[in-house]
Automatic annotation (TrEMBL), chains A, B:
Name of the protein this chain belongs to: MaoC family dehydratase
Gene3D superfamilies per the UniProt record, alphabetical: Hotdog Thioesterase (3.10.129.10)
Pfam families: MaoC_dehydratas
CDD domains: YdeM
Domain of life according to the entry: Bacteria
Annotated ranges, domain MaoC-like: 13-110
Amino acid sequence: MAQPAVCFEDFVIGQRFDAGSVTVDGDEVLAFATRFDPQPFHIDQQAAEKSIFGGLIASGWHTCSMMMRLMVDGYLRDSSSMGSPGIDDIRWLKPVRVGDVLRVSSTVLDIVPSTSRPDRGVVMTLWEAYNQKDELVATIKGRGLFLRRAQ
Amino acid sequence: MAQPAVCFEDFVIGQRFDAGSVTVDGDEVLAFATRFDPQPFHIDQQAAEKSIFGGLIASGWHTCSMMMRLMVDGYLRDSSSMGSPGIDDIRWLKPVRVGDVLRVSSTVLDIVPSTSRPDRGVVMTLWEAYNQKDELVATIKGRGLFLRRAQ
């Protein structure tokens, strides 16, 4: 069986990966929020205009999910990823609006080999999303569990 | 204008809110992951069976989004919520599978009045999701910004 392109031992602290960009789609903002986060400022144009946001904004969970997709396309899909035990923090810093273009990067913060299972370890990363105005709109500090390359 | 049912001053530390349950839908697991998290163990039945999970599992972002919806239906929709500045941590503790029934609750951990803006404050909550086997599958510690009731 082919080895994945990216395994635990390939990560280096400080390494930065540019995961490309995504344009925030209006239909998807509404569809996501209607199903998962139907608060007025996510689904009701008029209510959103009267809110502190001054217009419709994407659900924060949608923003995280868009960031995730870029990471899967960028390196996770062809990696030894075994999923994630969790997230250390998320910050939603600026509203994300329809038509925004989010550029997403991942920086390796720490690498923690498993003490009980020498074939794997946890990689801690900081994901950052900037919009087209170079404003930092969201950050995710998360953990991924990866296998080492099979010997 | 009618006051929202739930405002900042209505939260009490330790208060627990039962947000009901959701059954994890197979089509939605595939649709969500295909769009946002297309890793093999989320979208490819055969690859998932060979993975450490032994079968398809929902994206962790999908699990969080399902939890969010229960909270919106439960109390956020008719509240003075102004959105969330962020999440303090997420733990994905057990795989979430198609057909699982997730019961979700919210417990108030802390209440922090704004020092600069007396009309609002942050409520810190712990959201917990248990499956039908009473296993804790996911937790989210998050922050919500709420207005006080208008005087």
